[in-house]
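Onboarding guide, step 5: your first structure request.
Type a short instruction followed by the sequence, for example:

Predict the 3D structure of this protein.
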Amino acid sequence: MQKSSLILLDCTLRDGGYYNSWDFSTELINDYLQVMSSISTNYVELGFRMFDTEDFRGACAYTTDHFINHLTIPDGLKIGVMVDASEIESYKEGRVLALSKLFINASKSPVSLVRIATHYSQFNEALLSCRWLKEKGYEVGINLMQIASCSEKEIEIFAHAVDSKFVDVLYFADSMGSMHPDKVSKIITSLRKGWDGPIGIHTHDNMGQALENVNKAIEIGASWIDGTISGMGRGAGNAETEYLLANPYLQKDPSSTYKIFNLVSNHFAEMKKKCGWGPSLEYFYGAKFGIHPTYIQELCADKELDKNLIFNIIEDIGKTASPHKFTKQTLDLSKSSLSQKSLVIKGKKVPKFMKNIDVLLIAQTNASLQYKEAIKDYISAKKPIVISINQPNKIIDIPYDYVAISHNQKYRSDHESYLNSNSLKYIAPEGLFELDDKSLISSIKFNYGISISNDNFEMLGDHCIIPYRLTLAYAIAFCIEANASQIYLAGFEGYEDGNPKQKIMQNLLHILTKKDISLF
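The system replies with structure tokens like these:
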């Protein structure tokens, strides 16, 4: 490898955008661009070029020419964007119209380089997009994602298919962050059997190997390398640009790292504390299972999740059919150990045993503890059926007739207390727990099933359909099935502003109101 031939591409705002929805301030972007120019970065990939979505995303998700033209781009700094091949191929009006909506002729655009990210299953279609972009005058790269899951034969087939007339650089990405340097060597060797042009590498740091993998790739012959400031990128992040600068093949000024220091201090240090990217045991464990890093990122960001459960959930995700593909549904189901089970857990028809009887549903909260004497007085005077929402707190020593549980994420976190509660009678979907604990099954008095469907609330005799996996919603449905006279609540104190569960509770109450279901 000759020192002059190595290309450094920084993609902080593109890959880092997974942590802040690509919403970077103009001040940060302009400061960043000045530093990238001062350290002689060859290319800056400013973001994705996506189509509009319903969810909020910042400007670096779309990275339009109009947006770029309003930035202060230093002379000589080349700008790139990335496109997801699956978004192009799923466009209803076809590939050509999709690309035409996103790109004009390169001569009229501030963008020099377009990289197309593709999975192996779509690379032939992605190559057609490469050709279209090349004919429009762009420098073009193709980036094979999740290459660690491809066989050597598949990598060779891919490399042979790439035409150097339409592709300037062939990239491969360690999307799961699971690769070691030996694997990097094998991949480049396989690529060289069909491609003799420039090879680039994009690494993730899930197993702490990002920088070492880049150095190995350079040693074997890769000439394009990706980095991000402070490693900011999806999951555990990427190889840090500030560390890559120390590689002698880049032939950068030794003071370059110091130029990045103020940028990190002013913009990225606090962001890293808030967002939490970087190597961790969770990411390492996820990489071992070949799990998409977004699962780990979402689990670690869930403030309501018992952190002791994360490794159990990672194992459950690893056992699914496609752990390398992120879906919100798989994440939600795995949190409740439903990944291997039916989405509809049926039970037995609920008898109408609550007719003309009021029910009191009690949350296990500080509010219930604070007012427990008043709650006891109410129970003594009104004689309602008393149901605990999830496993009772022993400190809140209230006599319960039943305990409602609807998801075994809570069962996992309170497992020991369940083992010592033989006297309690449970309302629960038996099918959720049959593999977890036989002793719990024997304590289920009412086997009432459950299914989750957005904006839905229905009672179907042997199971309910509720909008969220909330035990409160499940218990309300059960009480209505049992023909309760009135349903009263105690100890439900709400959540702090910004807590996602606050919005969930508000939506649940809105759905119940539309159904003319009253709570007291």
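Each response can be followed by summary notes, for example: Residues 495 and 502 are 5 Å apart (CA to CA).
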